[in-house]
Each structure stands twice: as structure tokens, then as C-alpha cells.
Automatic annotation (TrEMBL), chains A, B, C, D:
This is TetR/AcrR family transcriptional regulator. Keywords: DNA-binding, Transcription, Transcription regulation. The lineage of its organism: Bacteria, Bacillati, Actinomycetota, Actinomycetes, Micrococcales. The keyword Transcription regulation applies. It holds the Pfam family TetR_C_24. Residues 1-50 form the HTH tetR-type domain. Residues 13-32 bind DNA. InterPro entries: DNA-bd_HTH_TetR-type_CS (IPR023772), Homeodomain-like_sf (IPR009057), HTH-type_TetR-like_transc_reg (IPR050109), HTH_TetR (IPR001647), KstR2_TetR_C (IPR041490), Tet_transcr_reg_TetR-rel_C_sf (IPR036271). It comes from Kocuria gwangalliensis.
DNA sequence: GATGAATGAGGCTTCATTCAT
DNA sequence: TATGAATGAAGCCTCATTCAT
């Protein structure tokens, strides 16, 4: 069942969560053991969404590692954008979780970096990317994706998700691509108007 | 006065803040109107630190815009690293502040991006940087600096602040520098062992 | 109907009572007006059991008042032992009942003392018992019977209901019997092994 | 400190406990970790009172074991009478305690029987008491003492604590004393008017 | 100035009760 | 009849805030 559709918002009191979900407080406790369980569920939900959609996007991008990185980042950003409230909750509330749940979330998040890391690694090995620090590069992709949710107030007026993704891809790919391949992938490097 | 030196930690109740600071609850209320005031003070403190040290570092970096960007980013990261608990609090607690205080913090943070933005702009105009999206580039610097505090659990074992700064500079500068100038600034682009 | 067979246990929430009884919560509310009604029913059930079996045991004991007292106490103890959970509930929950129901239960309990009181009275009048305080003596019998349920943790390892009854009878009858009749009723006064 | 002076009453909600004690809810949590802690403290308080006063009374009773039993029972009853609300709480709420605390209370209660048991034992060995089941006899004394609190509604109109103690002593001592010693201890055996 | 005992509103959670199926 | 999902009032507990000392 999908109590908790439009989770998020600002208030995280069980009363307000219930009200927003349009159910009673008591009903939440039929599906979740306690508040921490609700929180974990929301956060893990986003991470599972990422786990489902980012690898899929990479797979659908074909053989080219650069296309894979671009597609993976694109998908990551879109999941975050579609769940930006939940993404923000991750930063705001995860310190309230038990050590166990925090570990769970860390592990899932670290796992979510890996597909991007693998594509990056392949791009490096194929000579398409300069020999960048693969881990750092991949993690930056994740951080930039989160940035859209964390700093929406900063980007929102001037950017849409599309333009944000395009802009960030232009930056990060030009950081990584060897000069020889800039023209080949110029479709990612030119910031188009939106 | 310097009540609230090493606040931070995890607990943000006034009683635990007092205990950690080694003072009584009552004393905090002599210096701060209420909890929100304490929070704002902590957050604004970090931002003022940035406001003081990042421009100073840029100034000290000399005429070269690329050196300025590097020095500014370096300083930004170090302030965050020295106040990582407060930096995390910004993300965790700012949603609990009044609209007014949130606006104040946003303004300060947007202001903190500007020195980095100006240096970036100059680098572009001097032909040292490719024509990147200056705002986005500058904001990414800030986000990556915050990343050190937000994701310490991810980077900590393998990275020190120094290696983190070096690694990130290598990435972001190779993103921006035109191929012609890679050699000139190769000191930033090679990740050295630490 | 016999919803609520082996209620008891520790949990007294309607949901757990229902689960233990193997029925739905809703069904309980078809047979009982509310929780207090369930409670009263459980408690009254035990008292009615006593009201049915103690006089019957006394009747079956024949003419001898001492045998009647012994038989009555024996029966009282056995009803309590067979319903020890419900007996404990009486002590634990009766303060939650309405004044009206508490009065009802008091009256039933006072009534349950009477057959023991009458037999005691006859024993005194027949010169078998010393002139004890009949009310107190009879009530002690009830209290000692309850003691089996209330303090099972104290008696359980060393005593069975049988040995408990035998031991208590030995004590209370030797308290009451005049010295002249000790031998006549020595069958009650010697604690046998079990 | 003595928050919780006149504990007891009927209501055991923290709100009502606070109100009755004339303090705020919050203050209770400065002295007690949680509700269970309050409960345990009340119950243990009575048991410690017994532990203090019953042995003292026995000691003060002199060398005679029968006097000791009488004095011990007298003291036990008076502690219960002075704390009858707390004594009732023991029966009503101890099932809500953690296993650990229940064990603690059992142990204290079993300990509280011992002084009475020892005096009884001595009386038996001195040939003053018939060879009764010492454990059972001693425990009955405790149960009868509790009886005053548990069944106050039954005894109250006709009995004071004094007359209750006198009446019970007459019963239990005549149960135990060998016929030879009835006259010697007749001061305990005759129920006087009150 | 400095303390920390005291307060009580507000948040989490349980559970008696209802009602649509 | 029988079910069990849904409700929401009430209880436990925390913690921002005050104030007598």
C-alpha cells in the first residue's frame, strides 16, 4: 500500500505526516513500526529508485562509456528532482536514525555510486577520459545531483532540471574528456539555451 | 564572547549544547534570545568566516585568476573542514529557522559564491578558462567544499582535506582550463601522493 | 457463547485479547459493550464459578462442619487455580472499573465468603472450633485461596495446588480446632508428602 | 528529595501523579528515568520500609520467639497500613514492570518474609509452636498483612488496623501454638473489644 | 553575572472503538 | 455474522524557556 505518497514537506512530526498523507496517525503505525521506520522507508525508497533507474539508464545508453556516464548522471538527477523533498530529508534527518539504519543508508548510497564509477572507469580505460580520480569523479556526479535538491533555492529561477543536467554535464565531461575527444562529444559540451 | 565554541556534535537540545559548552542553560539565554538565535549564530558564524577568509585568500593569490580560483576553493574547503559540524548543521537545521533567517543565510551563502565567481569570470575573460557557465562552475566549487563535511563518512578513510582539495582542484580546473593552458597549470592537475 | 476462553496472559489490550481468543476485535464488540464489560465478565465469571462450586462442595461434604470448611476451601482454591489469570486480573484491573461494577464485584466476593462463614459458624457452635472471629477466619480462607494465584511465583516450585491446599488446611484448621478435636481431624492436620 | 510523597491514589498516569504530587510532569523526569522507574521506586520504598522496621520490631521484642512473631507481624501490618496505596500498586502495576524489576521486587519481598520465618522457626524449635510448615506460616503472615490493604473495603467498617492485627494474631498464633502454651500467650489469643 | 530546578506545550505512540465490506 | 482497516483521544516523554537564588 502506498500511504505516504507525497511524503516530504517541511514538517516531519507524525501528526503532520499523517495529515499530509490524508490518513490518521494511527494508520501510519499499521505500516511502520515507528517514526524512524517511516524516515528510513522514505530515504531507502529514493535510493532504491536510484538503484533501479540509474543502471537501467546506463544499460540503455549503449556501448559508449561517455554516453553511459551522461545517461547515468541524467537519470540520477531526475530521480533526485522527482523526489527532492525526500532527498533533502536524507540530509536533514539521517542523523536522527539509529547507527544501524545510518549504515544501511550509507551502504545503499555508496552502492548507487558504483554504476557511475564503472562507466567512468571504462571511459578512462578506453582513452576517452583523461586519467581522472575515478572515485572522486563519480562521487562528484552524485553530489551534483543532490545539489539540485539541496540548493534548489539557488538554481531554481534560472534553471530547469534539464538545463541543470545539461550545464553540469558540460562542466564535468569537459573536465574529464581528453582534448582529442571534445569534438566527438560536443553534443554534451555546448550549453544550449532552454 | 565565545560561549559556543565546539558546539556541533549530534545533540542540538539546549541542555546538551550548554553541557558541551561547559556553561549553564541560563547563560546561553543571556547571550542568545532563543534556540533559533543560537542556530543562526552558528550558521552565520561559518558564513562570516568564509566571507573573511575566502576573499583574503584570493587577494593573497596574486593576479592570476586561476591561482585565485584555486586559492579561493582551498580556503573555502578549509573553513568547512574546520567547522564541519556547523556546516552539517546548516543543512540539518536551516529548515527549522524562520523564513527571515533562512533568507539571511541564503543571501550570505550566495554572497560567499561571488568571490569565486569573479575569479572564474576573470579566468574566462583572460582566455585561461573555456567559456564555462560561470555561476554553475562557482557554485559547484561551493558544493564540493560542502561535500567534504556532508560526506565525510564517504571520503574520510582515503582522503585528508589536503588530498581532497588537491583531487577536486585537479578535476574542476581540468574541466575549465582550455587545453592550451593545461601545461601552464599542471601543478594543479597532477594528483600527487600525500 | 464462549469467546474469551483462555484470555488471561499479560496483555489486556482488546487487540491482543482478540488475537489470543482467535477472533477479530469486531466480534468481541458484538458480545461485549466495551472493554470494561469484558473485564467485568471475566471477573464475574470466576466469582460465579466460585458461587457454583464452593456451596456444592460444602453440600457434598456431608453434615460435619469441619469437613465442610475443608471442602469449601478446597473448592475455592481449585477454582482460583484453574482461573489464576482471571483471579490476578481481578486485583490488577478492578480499580479501572466503574464504581458500579466495583460494587457488583465486591458484593459477589462478599457473597462468596458466606458459605465458608456459615460452615465455620456451625463448627464453632458445635464446639469443634474454638470461638474464633468467624468473619475474619472465613475471609482468611478466601485470601489464602487468592494467595495461590497472587503469589504463584513464590509457591510454585515447591508446591502444587494439592500440597498448597493441604498445607494451608493444616494451618488454618489447627488454628481453629479446639485441642480436643485435633485427633479426630488429624487427617487435615498432617502435611503429607506429594 | 521527596517528590512523590503521597503517591498512590487510583490514577497512575504521569499527569495525575504529577498533579497529586503538586509538581510538573517534567520535574518527575528529573528524578526518575521513566514511569517504570517511578513505579519501582514506590514499590521498593515500601519493601525497604518493611526491611527496616520488621527486623527492628523483632529485635525490640526480646528473646521470646512468639513475641517476636507477634511484633514482626504487627510491624509488617503497620507499614502496609501506612502505605496501603503503594501496597495496592504493587499488586496492580508490578505486571507492567520489566522482568528485571519484577525479579528485584520478588527478591525483596521474599527477603521480607525471612525475619518472620526465622522467628517462627525458633518458636518451633523451642517447642512453643507445633511443627508447622514454617515457610507457609511465615508467608501467610505477609499475605494477611497485605490483606489489610488489598481488602480494606471488606474490613474497613468493622476493623481498625489495631483490631485487625489483634484478630489475625489470635488466629494465626492459636494455629501454631501448642496447646500447652495457649495460656502463657493468652494475651495474644483473646480478641478484645476496640 | 551565573546557575540549574522547574514548567508545560508539543511530539511520539498505543489502543479502545467504529464501520465499511 | 465476522472481519480488520481506520480513527483519534490519551498517555509517556522531551526539551525550549523561565526565574528564584
Amino acid at each position: 500500500m502506498t500511504v505516504l505518497q507525497g511524503k516530504g514537506s517541511e514538517q516531519m512530526s507524525m501528526q503532520s505526516v499523517a495529515q499530509e498523507a490524508g490518513v490518521s496517525v494511527g494508520l501510519i503505525y499499521r505500516y511502520f513500526a515507528n517514526k524512524e521506520d517511516v524516515l528510513r522507508s522514505v530515504i531507502v525508497g529514493v535510493l532504491e529508485d536510484i538503484e533501479a533507474r540509474v543502471p537501467a539508464a546506463i544499460l540503455a545508453a549503449g556501448e559508449d562509456p561517455v554516453d553511459q556516464v551522461a545517461a547515468g548522471f541524467d537519470a540520477y538527477c531526475r530521480v533526485i528532482a522527482e523526489n527532492s523533498e525526500a532527498a533533502v530529508i536524507t540530509y536533514r534527518e539521517s542523523s536522527r536514525l539509529s547507527a544501524e539504519n545510518r549504515t544501511l543508508i550509507k551502504d545503499l548510497e555508496m552502492g548507487s555510486v558504483q554504476p557511475l564509477g564503472r562507466a567512468t572507469q571504462e571511459a578512462v580505460e578506453a582513452g576517452l577520459f583523461a586519467p581522472v580520480d575515478v572515485d572522486l569523479f563519480a562521487y562528484n556526479l552524485v553530489l551534483l545531483a543532490h545539489g539540485w535538491a539541496l540548493k534548489s533555492w539557488y538554481f531554481q529561477p534560472q534553471h530547469t532540471v534539464d538545463s541543470y543536467i545539461r550545464g553540469q554535464l558540460a562542466l564535468v565531461l569537459s573536465a574529464a574528456l581528453t582534448p582529442d575527444h571534445h569534438i566527438e562529444y560536443s553534443r554534451y559540451l555546448t550549453a544550449k539555451e532552454d
